[in-house]
Amino acid sequence: MRRLLPRRVTGLLLAVGLLLTGCSASYRPTPLPSDPPGPRTPGSPPRPCTDPLRSYDPMPLPPAGSVPTNSSMGRVADRGRMIVGVSSDTLSMASREAGTGEITGFEIDLARAIAEVILGPGGKIEFRVVGPAEAQQQVETGELDLVIDQIGLSCTTWARAALSAPYLKTELRAITRPSVQFNPNTLGSTPTCVPAGTHSQELIRAKVPNPVLGRTWSDCLMRFQRGEVDVVVAPLPIAGGLARQDPYAKVSDAGLGEIQFAVMAPQRNVDMIRFVNAVLAQRVGSGEWQRSYDRWVRPYGGDGRPPTPTYGRS
């Protein structure tokens, strides 16, 4: 064991630059792909997935800045910074402040909490803005320690990565024009955009087998504004944030299914997920989860409470 001592209006176009934050974070831009990744590389077969909501038991949390040396967390501590894949265009979750360029939001609060326990107060975070599909690829190759970017709990994702207990539970909604009476039953015949590689795409496949695939949520909003699509499907807090940017957009009252978000790590790093689950439980118990939710998510997604975790994955 060892202790390491310390040291929102979002635009539709991503800015590039250094991100300086209260946690000494740095930012390196990463190009966004337009297509989801290919099939899983052959190798050892994935474990059967019967309950995607079930994650690994949380481990006892060490004091901040004091993590086991021979662990995934210890390797992050040795490097001196944590590398996290995030978005920068989702108001409420992770978006870039127009004046400072800083990325802030509910998911960023969570990233900082995890980094603080691993690295101690003032620990450095490198935020990498990645698309959903590329996030999967970079986790598999070990380029990212974690992805905190609206990753849905699904058997598809479990086959390629390790996932935490959910940190947010919400539902899918549709963004439409105020003059349109939205009918979920006719969604399949309506030009609909969803970002490629997201769990949202997977969830609406039965209703919309051939959606227009955007690179990001902002890309889908721009397609909506240009008249290329009539609907954008997104989780409620994201839909609320997108609609806030366009006076000619509204969020439907009808839900399109439940979705729960988890932190993603390389499949082999089960210890990191057990660690993240302990941080999540701590934030819920201390009230930090609720305070962060009320600040960032509630204005766009309404009232919310922490999701109930399910542990016992082996």
Automatic annotation (TrEMBL):
Keyword Transport: yes
InterPro entries membership: Bact_solute-bind_prot3 (IPR051455), SBP_3_CS (IPR018313), Solute-binding_3/MltF_N (IPR001638)
Solute-binding protein family 3/N-terminal domain location: 81-299
Protein name: Solute-binding protein family 3/N-terminal domain-containing protein
Family: Belongs to the bacterial solute-binding protein 3 family.
Record bears the keyword Transcription: no
GO cellular component, one term: outer membrane-bounded periplasmic space
Organism: Enemella dayhoffiae
Residue numbers spanned by region Disordered: 27-74
GO terms classed as biological process: amino acid transport
Keywords: Signal, Transport
Pfam families in UniProt: SBP_bac_3 (PF00497)
Ranges of compositional bias, category Pro residues: 30-49
